[in-house]
Structure formats: C-alpha cells, structure tokens
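User: When convenient, might I ask for sequence and structure tokens for a protein?

AI:
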Amino acid sequence: MLQEFKDFVFRGNIVELAVAFVMGLAFAAVINSLVENIVMPIIAMIIGKPDFSDLTFTINDSVYRYGAFITDLIQFLAIAAAVFFFIVKPMQAMLRRLERTPAEEGMPDEERRHQELLAALRSR
C-alpha cells in the first residue's frame, strides 16, 4: 500500500502538475506586478485616479463600495489583456512557425497546387 502511494505521488502527471502550479503562481505574481506597477499608473494618468476604492454610496446604513469593484474590474481586464498579448498571441505565432515545413516555405503556391493535383491523379 505504501508503494502504491509512492507510485501515485511520483507519477509523471502529478509532478508535472505541481511544477505547472508553482510556475503559474510565479507567473501570476509577475502579471499582478505588471498590472499594479505599470498598467494602473497609466490608467491613473489618463483618468486621474489609480484606485477607485474610496468611491462608495450609502443606502439605509449599508455602504456599497462600487469603486472597489471598478478597480477589480480594471485589474481583471488588464490581466486578461496582458495574458492574451504576452502569452497567447506569441505562443500561437510560435506554433504556426513550427507547423510549417521547410518544403512548403520554399515552394510557390502555384507549384504546390500542381504537386497536389499530380498526387490526386496518381492516387486514382
């Protein structure tokens, strides 16, 4: 039973998941720093306030902190944009480059079409 537990814990998927989790936490810290230290000051420069947390209204002794929600929403959108433009788009571009084969890059479109037609005719 102890051996089975050891096999489970040290199985490749669990270790890879743990590494991915730790890397994700480290990356989240970097993205949060980017948003707080670079993006939010730019927003503050444009709008005039880096933090909207002090914006509230009161109804029947209940305080509604809509400014904190606005700040969190801006931070979420900034984080989503940072992940999209700094992670997703570069990875897609890299994968597109890796998918191309050298033969396809050097061959003109017209020549490629001729080769495809010849291959289709030969397969009949």
